[in-house]
Amino acid sequence: MHAPRKAALPLALAASLAMGIPAAASAKAPATARAAGGDVVTPIYPSLVQTRVDRAERALRHATKRIENNKLDQAAASFKVVRRQMAAAWRGAKYVIRTTPPPPATEDRVRAQASGGAPVGPTLASPADTGLLVLSLQHEVASDVIQLVDGAHGTGLSMLSRTLFFTLNRRDQAIQDILVLAPPAPPADDARVRLRAHASGGAPVVSTFDTVMPNVPPQLQDETQGIDGLKSDATDLTAGGRRLLNAAETQIEKTLGVVNTNWPPVPAED
């Protein structure tokens, strides 16, 4: 029996709905802010993290192609790069989270940004945005590997299992790191002010973990949906593959519970 799944509406998504913007967004890229005038502002991520994310994604594409071509030895080498670069990306993100001083975010400053009163320049990713970038990479790896389980057996299945559970374990550890290192969440009123700043098309506000972590439950739910779909309809799923997916789903559901407990969605205003 699965635990109830709690849908979470990310603040950036809520803001886009308020502005009538399509909600479709890549699972890889965290939501972007909007500057005065409505232009999308893509944050600049620290190279310490971005280069590792790029390398992991390239290796994942190579691994997938090699699995599809039954080149298992080459796929194993590519998955090793995926694991190494994914781990390095989180080490970089953890350093950024640990060492970046908090911005002087007050309600007055956020209101000024919401009204377009603050100058807009290059937008550097906040520590929370940077952390979400790596969490999104972990989701990308997990969801891709899950889909490769259909038809995998023997050496191929063992290789996928190693990469999948490495990813799930590293994500759980990343979430624990965030709980230890992230500054306290702002008061609920301040969080609602941030949402209004996004919705008004004002200057971008600084993201915090309380505003970005609600993006994670939909990623986790996407993974469990992928697993459920395979278990229901996959024609080449082996008994070993089904056991792997059952174990992964149990772990993902536990992760979902941790995220929803520690970062509940900001309640809607009356």
Task: Give an overview of the whole structure.
The protein is mainly alpha-helical and 270 residues long. The chain has 10 helices and 2 strands. It has helices at residues 11-18, 47-68, 72-99, 107-114, 127-148, 154-181, 188-199, 209-212, 216-233, 239-262; strands at 33-34, 40-41. It has a two-stranded antiparallel ribbon with strand order 1-2. The longest helix has 28 residues, at 72-99. It is globular and about 55 Å long. It starts with 10 loop residues before the first helix and ends in an 8-residue tail after the last helix. Mean pLDDT is 80; it is low at 1-28 and 31-38.
Topology:
Blueprint: H1 11-18, E1 33-34, E2 40-41, H2 47-68, H3 72-99, H4 107-114, H5 127-148, H6 154-181, H7 188-199, H8 209-212, H9 216-233, H10 239-262
Antiparallel strand pairs: 1-2
Overview features:
270 residues, globular, two-stranded antiparallel sheet, 10 helices, 1% strand
